[in-house]
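Q: Hi! First time asking for a complex rather than a single chain. Here are the components, and I think there are three in total. Is that enough to go on?
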Amino acid sequence: MSLMRIGAFLFSTLRLSTPLIFAALSAAICEKAGLFNMAAESMMLWGALIGVMVNGWTGSVWVGFLGACAAGVIVGLLIALATVKGKADLMLAQIAINLASTGGTIFMLYVVTGDKSTSAMTIQSGTLPKIMVPFKKVPIIGPMLNKQNILTYGAILAAIILMIFIKRSRTGVHIRAVGENPNAAESVGISVSKTYFLTWAISGLLGGIGGAFMSMAYTSAFTKNMVAGRGYIGLCASSMVAGNPIGAMLCAIVFGVADAVANQLQLTNAPVDLVMMIPYVVTIVVLIIISIIKMSAHARKIKSKAQEA
Amino acid sequence: METHKEALKMENITKIYPNGFVANKGITFSVAEGEIHALVGENGAGKTTLMKVLFGMEQPQEGAIYVGGQQVKITSPLDAIAKGVGMVHQHFMLVPSMTVAQNVLLGIEPKKHGLVDNAACIKKTQELSDKYQFGLDATAAVADLSVGLMQKVEILKALAKGAKVLILDEPTAVLTPQETRELFEQLKLLKKNGHSIIFISHKLEEVMELCDNVTILRHGYCNGSYPISDLNEAKLSRLMVGRDVVLKIEKPDPKPGKAILEVKSLEKLSDTGKVVLDHVSFTIREGEVLGIAGVEGNGQSFLSDCISGMQKYDGGDILLNGKSIKGRKIADIRQSGMSNIPEDRMTVGCVPSMSILDNIMADRFERRENMNGIFMDKQKALKITDDLIKEFEISCDDRSEAIRLLSGGNIQKVVVAREFTSGANFVLANQPTRGVDVGTAEMIRKYLVRQVREQNIASLLISADLNEVLEVSDRLLVMRQGRIVAAFPKANMVSEDELGEYMLGIKTMTPEEMEGLL
Amino acid sequence: MNKTKRIENTFDIVRILIAIAVAYLIALIILALISDDPLNVIGLFIGGPFSSKKHIGDIFTRMIPLIFTGVCMCFVYAINKFNLAGEGAVNLGGCLAACVAIALKETGVPGWICIILCIAVGALAGMLANAIPAVADQAFHADVCVISLMLNYILLYFTTFILKNVIKDQGAAVTASYKLGNKVKLPKLIPGTTIHIGLIIAIACVIFVAILFYKMPFGYKMRAVGINPTFAKYIGIPVTSTIILAQVIGGAFAGMGGAVQILGMFPRYKWESLTNYGFDGLMIAVLARKNPILVPVSAFLIAYIRNGADLVATKTQIPPEFVSIIQGIIIVLVAAEMFLSGWKKKLIFNAARKDLKEKEAKA
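A: Yes, that's all I need. Here is the structure of the assembled complex.
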């Protein structure tokens, strides 16, 4: 396989991984706070839709992007409201919001554009810029990184920023404390409920940006069902590494590889549907393998503690 | 002896819980600067409540608190910390993945350029640790620390927030002897620096060694404050242990038959590697009640869980009706003849939202005699439930109402009714009358004795209630630190003073003395 | 104390009704705002499903698959493990039932036996679908919900693959399987409507499951494990096997739902997307408070709302998806314990005070 094709494949991988990375980061910050985020799907859907709508309405792709961010944050805050203040069961509330969002975005699309499946015909929406890198001639790395959408770099940047935030900032430390031992946090004056609200807001922001990527990076429209389970894949990526942002990014890229492979296979004669299964199968298999590894590590730890005594 | 300034005084504290239980009645004691003050008393004496009041977790009906001579009102734990009172809880409030420094300064982290200044955290924590010779490495991850070191982190946490008065609740319960030594050194250093320490403990030898003064609580009252130098362990034990009311139960003498339960050299390590059961052996015969007395937390819960099958054990064996039940499923164990009245009726003993009928039938709904073909026989279930409600005088409106609507005593009656009629010939009763009104408690105890005698079954009674364990048991064992330390052939002939001495570790019987009594 | 229980019970039902009313009202407001002809549209939404014999019949027809998935989710909800593979189980059940029907089409096997076989295969498919997340969870502690959601996509693509490669009728105008044949078509129940005997099968399942839940040992074990697994362990109920079995049995019904829907409503198998019956089923189970007997009632409600939305969609251009907003609101309001909890506490408090006064008066 020529270097060109490897480079192109890696480009494709990185591109396809971007929304997965944002979904994974969205789940990761929640994981650190001890929350199970199943609603990245909703955050991305609304981010994608509102981004396009605001773009079309204001004519500016960046204002649209802000709209997508705001939409994600609102979804996050709604979840926080229902579960922290309303004390709704976390799973049920998120399943409800996912249900409402899959249909609700289609509905809102119709209300605003009159079209039930895509905004392409009706909303003039732009795309976010791509970035040329100076080292584009460098084999493999060049073609992989050249002309990626700005949000792809944003994803990698976001992972790094999130990592620093969680490890080094005061708020990040408090979020982790709440996640590991809410009693300990409460006992030193950290408000657990305020922390949850903040976490959901950040999570929503990341999800919203992921959605913006879907509808404003390589396409310039919102299409129904465009998120197609990426939110859940992001959740898997994050739970495998216990919410470590860099780890979640890497896992998301692994799933992005599966996605890219599926894309490549679609160009061949392989049956489309079996190929589409690949990312999801890979996710389940990896999730199970990681769970098994965690289980045996835990068992070994208990054994060694008993032997020490 | 120089008189130091008063650091803390609790005056005339009275605390009555909403259900009417009087936890503290008119308790007064004071602690000076640079004093280590012991707070002792049996389970249920009121120590925990008193400390909850001091730490702002409960509000007293009457009484006042003075810190440094000034009267204060302590409204919450944060308020207590602000006023210089720090608590080191039994269950650590630490974040395992963070370092010692991060835990100590959690909530008050110093900042630099918007981010946490890790270097400053480490420096500050290390200085604090070195000042009191805690021997901690501020950069170590808490998850890797031993229990003893984790406790030091908790103490450091309180000190970092400016605590002058430290409350330590049973601090040595989780420590090895070596770690206990180290802790005492630390505490003496803190004392030299002018801190005051309230030391809650059951271990009399530690109290005698470490503390300057002691306040004894008994059944919610203060039974005096004394300088340690005026006491010895025996006197202290007598002040602590005793019954206000002596309950006498009429019962015929036991005629023990064949062995029903044989516990052979049971060993168990906790998750943290501590020995919680240390070669425990005893036998219970049909027609007798074997009681186990002891301060809570000395292995009784582990013993009960191992016998019932709820937890695994690391060594030894248990035989029920002659057959080993090691590693067997609970359903098998129950079928082999065991029933179990658990310590915690709400989380283990019942399903709170299910009906009384469902809770009673829980162990017998699948038995052939209660089935109607492939269905559960509703009529049979109704009759069984109604009969038991009558026999045990369970006060309820309707057998199909949720069990959690009943009073604690009635819920316990349901559990007891089920366990006594399950057809077992061995009943494991763990704190069977805890939190239950006097009338119900009496009824349960009389029923237990009657069943054991008339049906010729065997019973193991684990109880922190002295009345109960002295009057209901035939033979009596005392458990301490996972070991059997005393055995008495006739429970109702044991004096409280003697019992207290064994419970609190002042005396221990040798295997020879216990020969034939286990 | 008894009064408390009665207040709680009635209150819970009232709460659900209020939640439904609130959500419904919001939907009406949305409709009024976006349509050019609000009164007509609202009338269509509220009254449309009842406007003719056929329309009323359509509600019952729509209920059929929802009853099956509602029953499936009752198991899942009762055992407290959010295994949502019932959604994909519907597709798998329908697809495999179609395969069986096609395979037996030309043979001499009588129709009613074919129907039984198809439904049985559907049930097995559903059991398999639910078993995968259930076992992964108990054996490896991998999250049940996440694996089940991934599995739904896998099942979707798997069945689409089968549709397009194994049973595809090349001669048909659209992507569809071969004709399933007349002998497996479920006969209509009431002339003038689309209701087929699948409804009878569905109701029979509800009755069976209700008996299982409340009159048979397994149902008891399942409910106990779902509420208090520690108690279940203590009393000797096998926790792990009960958890897995409950999900697997639930899955059977979802799979059956798919099979019955295909046999009853379609001459060919055509599904290329998820049907949403599974998620609807969860909502039905939540509204029915895990009680299988109430499943037909909630299913009726959901079917009514969805049919109303469909009617609105045909007459206007408004997409029926707005119903999902209603569903989301209802589930969140019902699940939020704090919703109206202040009112409930007041009611209980007032009743207790009244009780006390009466007792004092008597004394």
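A: The two ends of chain C are 19 Å apart (CA to CA). Let me know if you'd like any chain examined more closely.
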